[in-house]
Amino acid sequence: MMQAILKPPCLMLLFIALGACAGKEAREEGPAGKRLSLDALVKSETGEVLEVHVAEARKYLRELMMKLYKRNPRELKKSKYQSIDENLLQLFDLRHGWDFPELQGKTGIAAIRLTFAAEYQGDRVFSFVAGLTSMIMAAYNNQSEFYLLQSVDPQNLYKSARNIEIAVWKLEHDHAPDGELYLYSNSRPGDMSNLSYERLFGNLIALQDTMAVIITGRTNRTLIKVVQQMATAIFLPILK
Length: 240
Description:
By secondary structure, this protein is an all-alpha fold. The protein has helices at 8-29, 31-42, 45-71, 73-78, 84-93, 108-115, 124-139, 154-173, 196-219.
C-alpha cells in the first residue's frame, strides 16, 4: 500500500515549490498583487463586509436615479446636466463633497425634504437621490474603504434604514399643490404598478439593517429601536 505521509525532505521540497509558485504569482500580478497583500494585512473581515455593503447600496441608488428620471422626464428637463448619464456621473463618479449649488447647500435629510417642498423649482430626482445617498454615506462615516480599527456606529445604520422608509412613504404620499405627486415611482396615473421600485428600496433597507446587526454583534452594543407612525414620522438624525 502506498504511504500517504511525506518524509521531511519531501516536505521541504513541497514548501519550496509552494513558495516559488506564490512568488511567481506575486511577481506576475505586480502592483495589484502588492495592493492585495497590503489590504489583507490592514483590513478586517468586518471592514470587507462594510465595503461590500457600501458598494451594493451605491449600485442600488444608481439604479434608482436612472429609473426615477425615466419615470419623471420633466425633472430631467430642470437639471443643469443634459442627460441621465451625466447626472449619474456627477453624483456617483466625480469628487464633490456633496456640494451641489442646485441643492442650496443641503445634503442628507435636508436634501430629501427639499424634494417635497412646494417652493422648490429644481430637479427633484437629483435632490431625492443625492439626499438618500449622502444620508446613507454619512451612516458609513462617508467612507467606502475600511481598515483595521475603523468601524461605524450601528445606530446610524439603523436610523438610515428607518429614514429610507420615511422617504419612500413621502415619495408615495406627498402631493404638490396641483394634486400630483412630487415624484412618480411605482406608477403614473393609468399605468400598471411597477414593483421594481419596492424591491430596490427593500434591498437598500435590508442592507442597512443587516449591517447594523452585524456591527452590533461584533461590538456587543445594543440597538435602540424606534417605532413611529409613518404619516407623522420624523427623519432620525445621523450623528457623527
